[in-house]
Design brief:
Helix content is about 50%, strand content about 5%. The protein is mainly alpha-helical. The N and C termini lie far apart (about 70 Å).
Length: about 150
């Protein structure tokens, strides 16, 4: 029973739920991109290349002389046309993710206020031992040297 309670605690953490939502949305987005590539981008590209259907581009690994239909489809082959489609899917998804991350990073950046007053330093460097000491100190706590007081104003 302890393992079930540990699993429940793990499963309901915010990061796990966020990851699950991301995977589901990513899967749906992947289907959309696949449809864009297969149904919108590749047909005009194929038309420009004399009616080539990229799904049909393959290198048969056996002699296909005299074969047609199901027998031809059953011949083992290297389907480089399908590979081209998948690579194009990947490039589009990767570019979209790049744009998404770039947008998120832009939103996360905080712009510095040009009118903001910079904080006064709280420490200074001892000119003798180069240690950091409080600004108001008259003696170095490390080497006990006498320090000059700087006038403010």
């Amino acid at each position: 029973m302890k393992i079930l309670s540990e699993f429940k605690e793990f499963a309901v953490r915010g990061n796990v739920v966020d990851l699950a939502v991301g995977v589901i949305i990513g899967g749906a987005f992947g289907k959309i991109v696949t449809s864009v590539v297969n149904d919108i981008i590749m047909p005009p590209v194929g038309m420009l290349l004399n009616g080539v259907n990229f799904k049909d581009l393959k290198i048969p690994l056996k002699d296909t002389t005299g074969l047609s239909g199901d027998a031809l489809a059953a011949v083992p082959s290297i389907n480089y046309g399908a590979f081209i489609n998948v690579m194009l899917d990947f490039v589009i998804v990767a570019f979209c993710i790049f744009l998404l991350v770039k947008g998120i990073n832009r939103l996360r950046r905080t712009k510095e206020d040009p009118n903001a007053v910079k904080a006064e330093p709280t420490e200074k460097e001892c000119p003798y031992c180069l240690s950091q000491v409080p600004v108001k100190a008259t003696r170095c706590k490390h080497c006990t040297s006498q320090l000059e007081m700087k006038s403010h104003g």
